[in-house]
Give the backbone structure.
Amino acid sequence: MSATYTAAATLPEALAALASGARPVAGGTDLVVGARQGKAPLPDSLVAIHGLAELRGIAETGGGGLRIGALVSHADLVAHPAVRERYTALADASAIVGSHATRHVGTLGGNVMNASPAMETGGPLICFGAEAVLVSESGERRVAVADLLTGPGRTAARPDELLVAIELPAAAGGSCYARLEYRRQMEIAVVGATCAVTLEGARIGSARVAITALTPRIVRVPDAESALAGGDGGAGAVQAAGDAAAAAAQPISDVRASADYRRAMAAVIARRAVTAAIARARGSSDSVPIPASPALHGADRD
Amino acid sequence: MAVVEDTREQFIRQDGKDKVTGLGRYTADLARTGMLQARFRYSDHAHARVLRIDTSAAKALPGVFAVLTQDDVPDVRYGGFVEDRTLFAKDVVRFEGEVVAAVAALTQEIADRAVELIEVEYEPLPAIADPEQALAPGAPLIHEGWAGYGGNEDVVREGNDCSHSSIRKGDVDAALASADEVVKERYVADMSHAVPIEPRAIVAEWQGDKVTVWTSTQVPFIARSGVATTLQMPEADVRVVVPHLGGGFGGKCEFHFEAHVAALARAARRPVRLVFTRREEFVAPDHRREGQVLELETGVMKDGTIVARRARLVLDNGAYAADAPFFPQLAAMMAVGPYRVPHVSVDAHLAYTNTTPSGSVRAPTAPQSCWGLELHMDAVAERIGLDPVEFRRRNIVHPGDETATKQVLETIAAAESLERAVEMIGYGRELPPDEAIGVACGWWPTFALPSGAHVKLHGDGSGTIVTGAQECGTGSVMALPLLAAEVLGMRPQQFTVVYQDTDAGPWDAGASGSQTTTNNGRAVVEAAIDVRNQLLELAEEVLEAARADLELVDGRVRVKGSPSTGVDITELAEKAAGDKLLLGRGSGSPPASPDCDISGCTGRLGSESFLAPTFMTHAVRCKVDRATGVVRVLEVAAAHDSGRVLNPVGANGQVEGGVAMGIGMALSEGSQLSDDGRQLNPYLLDYKLQTAADVPEIRVEWVGEPDPTAGPNGAKAVAEPPCVPTPGAVGNAIAKVAGRVRCLPMTPMRVWEAMQR
Amino acid sequence: MRYDAVLNVNGTDFPVEIEPHRSLLSVVRTELGMPGSKEGCDDSECGACMMLLDGRPVNSCSYLALQADGRKIVTVEGLADGGELHPLQRQFLAQGGVQCGFCTPGMLISAKALLDQNPAPSEDEIRIALSGNLCRCTGYQGIVRAVQAAAAEIA
Ligand SMILES: Cc1cc2nc3c(=O)[nH]c(=O)nc-3n(C[C@H](O)[C@H](O)[C@H](O)COP(=O)(O)OP(=O)(O)OC[C@H]3O[C@@H](n4cnc5c(N)ncnc54)[C@H](O)[C@@H]3O)c2cc1C
Ligand code: FES
Ligand code: FES
């Protein structure tokens, strides 16, 4: 049960609260829900950061990339044209988080900092080479999202550091995040895979592949990437990438699935992500698995 | 053609405005002055001997007003069929959700802390989760004292076999030996749950020796007698009130925790409220849907005639009997299905296990048994190379046919329901290779029970129906004005219904067994006829006409053949108000069970013949993702014979909801158990209900004729039947694409595994 | 420790003094005496508690009440305009979208959030939007019909 609470009005206020031991709460869709489920009690001291204007908004960076504020909601991400067009895998990921309420309340920052091995945006961010911008009273530092996520529920951020934004370098080509879905909505990733590819003429230039919910932290799969890079992106390469994803998986058995099924699905879902990423890079839009329209997810009206 | 009433004026439920404005109150919304909050301490083991309970630390916690264990309540064993239960654990705990102690405290937080402070010392005992293991020779007894328990003498039980029923007809061995083909299969259905969206809540308050219990029960009178029995007080001193009820589906049938809360309130000398969490709702009540193991064997001739069925069913009872002992007989009937089978031998057992007790959930036993049987029917059709619909056509029951217990079926439209559903979905049309249409047929009885109602007409001509009936949202009580209005030539909107209160209405079995329209409907009709007679008597005087020449139409009593000569009911009511009042009472006797012959059968518990049986066929089109095993149901056609359909908006809503529940059972709803009987997924993220995005369009049509043996003007059961055939229809569609999945729910993983074989 | 906050619910300001762990749902249901929003689960899965927060849907059971300080909240009690039912409320009744009614408060709010953003949703968009609101009674058919009818009426 939390004893103290501050609603930070400014960044320095938030950082001061963190420095004195408070935990940030953004949308609370992980933190408060986790406490209700009995996973972990609410921290004793909370600082609410939902009012920080500095952490909002999506902006173009000088280098052709995007800077996404930590408080940007999943709904805002899906609705943003640049995210949809250039970082489609990220839009795919945010589009399938929870329900429309979860997508409106849940933030990118909370998704990342919660560091669940099943979290949706991790794979895309890692494949895009995203960096986390962490700020504390002692200054700012940048950490690649791939290095930030160190294990289930663990990050490389210090407790006094606030994630203020995620920066994405310029991206070309196509990308996709796909997940195994038992129901059409309200699912949690049991198996997820991301692929981002660039083209060199008709051939695949570079490829990035990551698997989600299959290892204690979301990881890239170098064997899958090399199976694709420089190739024709045909069925053989896709198959090999899928097999590599399955080989890299360290699946567990639990109420959601057996290890065998998870491993088999790792290959299937990875193949789907790869196929869609290549198709998108080649300009096809009919393979877009973003499940709902932007109108539905809601454009930011702020 | 089915008789579907055209209610012309759209019928809006009386409680509707309350519900859409958020002003209606459900039990958890209630507050009483000085009210305390309750929490239970549950067993820490699935099976253990309780050596010591120390409540002193909990009692010492500031803000705690009462802590109770079995020592604090009368030493009463209760149970409708088998008296195997006490309010709190006595000596032994038999499942993870067994209540060991209860606390009432100023706040929920204090109550939560207090239950943790209760010290319980156990000696763990071997726990059995698997019902087949429980029946194996030498299995440890779950109730060592089973032989000494009182209860219904008709329950045939021994050791862990809590109830055994069998059906024997003809000579199965000989018939199987002479069959062209014999198909033998095994199916397993996991336990599942009713999952009303409202978790249960109870508030109790004493006034002197009388207690009022507000509770989210489907069966207020049964809850009342439960409180009276276990706390040893007269029923007249127990008033049960049901505020708006947020769904039940059987999960809120039976007597559950009303006495615990009443006892807490008495000990604390304050009102007490208990509100369950979703997890408690899964684990603690004795009303989840039973798991089943079905071994089915069918002998068939090359022309598609079924000659014999042998079956052995094992039902998972859980730790206590609750109302489940009649399940084996029902399940045995379901294992034969709505088909002509001349030689039958079915045994069904209800096995105690160390799991949450099972009890009636919407059409108990039927969706699972029907699923197993209907998949088996397709397997048999496949063996003899016959189309599954044609195979059903050749065996389905028609009027005049005999059931396995030799009941002769009369007004039934099973064959019509099959033909109609198949036609609605366009069976046989060309489909993509990953899609298929599956068909399943089911049946279900209408239950006859006593019930009572009063109908009053007021001086201004408006009316009140006072009934003991309860509804859980189905609209069955809301539709009672239609019946009274019909008898009295009035409009349904002129009636108010008073229900939800055991001090007001006469006895009724409650919202269970789809019985309200049939039984309470009969009572309301009789009460309305009573008022009608009183009106006619008054009108005879006013109109100076013989009663036989009078009719009630459009709010008037008028002379037949001369519609302009008449008197308004309002006028008669006003007249009566100054003199003798217009008060009608009705109960009517429940219709007798149809004749049958059960010589040679075991365990006669009321389901040996089916009163006014309903028949339904579902045809579904499914798409199977052949790489992942994920199944989407794309289209459902449901054709039901429920006799006369009183309130089509309401009845269609029952089918739509039942089908959605059936799709859930088919694809995603099942409890997973640890080896010692604990539920591993007692929460909605991993016990998955279907969402709006998963459920497709559901088309509903009604077939058949009013059944004279049924309720008002031939209405048969409506609410339970809809979930019965859905899982089987989905399973048969999946089988055509991916192979037969022999476990329910047919999760993506299980579909995928079937494809690997 | 308790903190002061002002919750604006259905247009009225309510000053409250609450502990940090309290959910928006529990404060609105108990302190503010508006129990129309329901609690159906422990894990943000059922949607019975849904409210609008600054026009966006939120599962209030899992949202800290203090985080709603100074913001606009709409609950089911705020949908009707005086005695006049909102078209969604009317159509839920007319189309068989209400049975037990326990999902109804959240369902109506969820549907309102959808129509506010997308006045002419397709059937599939309606179904996707309502997927965080579980209904056990209706099979969703009456609810989807009601949202379609209300959309047509509002347009
Ligand atoms: C019904 C439901 C369905 C869901 N479905 C999905 C899903 O499909 N996929 C998925 O990935 N997730 C899902 N989630 C989880 C959750 O919604 C997302 O992870 C969401 O993005 C979390 O954001 P938040 O703002 O609510 O985080 P919060 O709960 O506020 O915070 C999460 C964690 O991050 C920390 N934190 C938050 N912001 C910062 C910051 N700026 N700097 C430092 N630390 C911070 C908090 O201290 C906390 O430890 C679901 C949740 C629910 C309730
Ligand atoms: S009560 Fe909030 S989502 Fe279930
Ligand atoms: S109407 Fe009962 S849960 Fe929806």
Notes: Residues A 23-31, 33, 49, 70, 96-98, 102, 105-107, 109-111, 113-114, 119-120, 162-163, 188; C 44-45 surround flavin-adenine dinucleotide (ligand 1) (CB under 6 Å). The mean pLDDT of chain A is 92. The longest helix of chain A spans residues 259-281. Chain A touches chain C through 40 residues (CB under 8 Å).
